[in-house]
Amino acid sequence: MIAVIWVNLRRAMGDRRLLIIGTLVPVVIILITGLLEGSPKEPIGLLHPSPRLLHLAETTDGIKVRVESSRTDLTDDILRGRVVAGIVQLPSQSNSVRADFLIESATTDAVQARTDVVALMDLMAAEGSNTKFTDATLHATQTQAPLSPFWYVAPANLVLFVGIAVLVLSAGMVETRRLGVLQRISAAPVHKRAIVFGQMASMMVTAIAMAIGLIFVGIVLFDVHWGNPMSVFLVVALLGISIAALAVIIGTWARSQEQAIATAVIVAIIAGMLGGCVYQLSTVSSTVKNVGHIVPQAWAMDAFIKLISDHATFADTLPEIGALAVFAVVLSAFAVWYYSRKVFSTT
Amino acid sequence: MQQAVGGSEAVVTTLGPSPMLRCEGLRKRYGDRLAVDGVTFSIAEGECYGLLGPNGAGKTTTISMLCGLAVPDEGDITVDGFEGGTLEAKAAVGYVPQDLALYPDLSAVENLTFFGQLYRLSGKELQTRIGETLELVGLADRGKDRIGTYSGGMKRRANMAAGLLHRPKLLVLDEPTVGVDPQSRNAILETVGKLGIAVLYTTHYMEEAFKLCDRIGIIDDGHLIAEGTADALIGDHGGRDKVHLSCDGADLDELAAACRELENIHDVHEVDGNLELSTDHGPAVLSAVVAVATRHGVDLTGVEVRSPNLEDVFLSLTGKELRD
Ligand SMILES: Nc1ncnc2c1ncn2[C@@H]1O[C@H](COP(=O)(O)OP(=O)(O)OP(=O)(O)O)[C@@H](O)[C@H]1O
Ligand SMILES: [Mg+2]
After folding, report:
1. Ligand nearest to the CA of A346
2. Are residues A194 and A315 in the same domain?
């Protein structure tokens, strides 16, 4: 069984398609979509702005502002990346302007925003106001980690592309069968169940390894804070098992490699869309959202969103983990049954 | 020692006490087609047994059953004393499938490592065996290359290496030389020839079976219709030597009549303006035949003596050609 796992992994590693679909493409896509969403044209949050400041901000090109109702809201929006920085205009004697400048940390966006704010203050000073301006980094006061602009696209593409890549691996299964390699393996002194479980296990290991790899890519390249490690691991593992089982089912069913690849890509993309990897499920109608939850991807995305943006605890993610476990068990059981039955039908 | 075998009432051949392989009354049905119908044969230790038959005769099906890939509907298989299909029986067999069954995206060494592990080989021993086996099939210098980059003949040899790696007691080769260039074909035949283990060799090339095999079973339409050494089969079913006389436009009737008078000539008939004589021993009658022709003033443009071969055996047993 170890040998079966090993050889499949060895083949998966040598498979350039897998390398490209599984790692390169998602990283590039995360980068592109993440940069588009987290671009510096996010507005600057304003709290208690004077009419003059508001007017200046609105009439200056290249500056977008958003008026906040409380300091808490402002802080929260900065952390969520809805605004890149905040200005809190403080009450003061007439003809003088005092403001706090709030940023999450010294990101390039924030530096850009600060330049913009200084420019605004200079404008007011030029009108004869006495300006005083204090920097305040949220880092010092906040306890929660900041949200990466990639907070949604990173998990979304992880879920989507692990699905595509692993399902595409099913083509390798078809190849093994068509070449007669599977026959030859069956002629060796190994138990049938070792062959079946070896095949399943290698798919699962590939899926989980790829997902964990993308988690690390998210941390290192995109500064994503994934949240509770236990939850993240379980979500990734159970999602990997479900997708691997699905891949075995497709690999068993398909008659040719082309058929396997086409089916895999279609299934993975549809499941990804239903599962909220393309649009957040929180933004779609409740019908679509409910329908979406027939795929494990949806539960994984729910869990990731909870973990990353709401800093959910392990207990908070138990419903999603439970649902994923059900998917993993049911799909694996079916895959084992179907594979054993179909592939060894002549025996 | 040879005998004709017909159906399941066949008698077990007089081999040693425990043959390496024994099949008895094998029967396998696919849908309403009987692919194998009552096949019985044995292979002794160190013996090379050829299963000779045309396309669709049931060779591959027979092999599938004795390698544990298909369960016979009826009949028994014993390999090295173990019941067919058990792990012990499988461990004793080296199976070389008809089609190339290796991962094309891995190197020969990687493929052999994998198959070696399936046969419980590991570590140094496995590495040594891989080296030896590649040497044996003449691929030692290409072991690191991906199978996909091999030529057709090299693929076949690699395919065979995977079946030999664990030093099986019985090597099962399913048409290993189909579509193979003469060089690789010779390499394969040579390798099989020097192994010294029991071999089951299926083919529809009668020359190969003749050269390589100690005994031959002739299979057609799922039945094993005859079995024995090549010489015995030819002696029993091949018919007589044929002497072919090419005689340009001469009056053949007179010559034919004169030939019939000769000793040891059994039959004379005309084929396309030439004469064909049947005799027990072609070379022995040759001088007499030529003398008769000269006496009748017939100009012989060619004389050919042909001994019967396995094709003739097959033709006489089934009424059809071995290859179409
Ligand atoms: N899996 C299968 N399903 C249905 N019929 C089969 C199957 N395998 C073999 N047969 C049929 O059984 C018969 C014997 O086939 P088999 O492959 O054993 O022939 P063979 O002697 O190996 O021929 P060849 O020289 O072409 O390899 C054929 O008529 C074939 O169509
Ligand atoms: Mg065949």
Report:
1. 1
2. yes
